[in-house]
Design a protein that fits this description.
single chain, alpha+beta, 8 strands, 4-stranded antiparallel sheet, 2 helices
């Protein structure tokens, strides 16, 4: 796994393609949420601009709201240190225009925030 978050939920991002024309990365995304009597599994693909990736890391480092959004607007990951939560959403539209949406909000601890920062910051950049 290229990027793995294990707390407060499980999110993995595995690079499958690079684009140098518009510096960006294509990822396989997996989200797994397990709570009491509830389980959710999301699998999708998304493109992230390298600039957005870098801004996300910088905002975490600076204790600002960090927002990671894919190029199509179907995936968002937001770390809000002021309110102390992590928010995520993933939407997918089928060929007929019907949309399925999954989203959640979790408590963001200092330990989880540090681990998320390390997971993204340690990713080997080519740009």
């Amino acid at each position: 796994m290229d990027i793995e978050i294990t707390s407060p939920i499980n999110i993995t991002l595995d690079v499958i393609e690079l684009d140098e024309h518009i510096p960006s990365l294509k990822f396989n995304l997996a989200i797994q949420v397990n709570k009491f009597n509830y389980s959710l599994s999301v699998a999708s693909q998304l493109w992230l601009e390298c600039q957005c990736f870098d801004e996300f890391i910088d905002n975490i480092r600076n204790e600002d709201i960090a927002h990671l959004k894919d190029m199509n607007g179907g995936f968002e990951l937001i770390l809000n240190p002021v309110l102390g939560w992590l928010e995520w959403s993933c939407a997918k539209e089928d060929l007929d225009g019907y949309v399925t949406v999954s989203k959640g909000r979790e408590k963001l601890t200092d330990e989880a925030k540090s681990a998320i920062y390390a997971a993204f910051n340690n990713y080997p950049k080519w740009w």
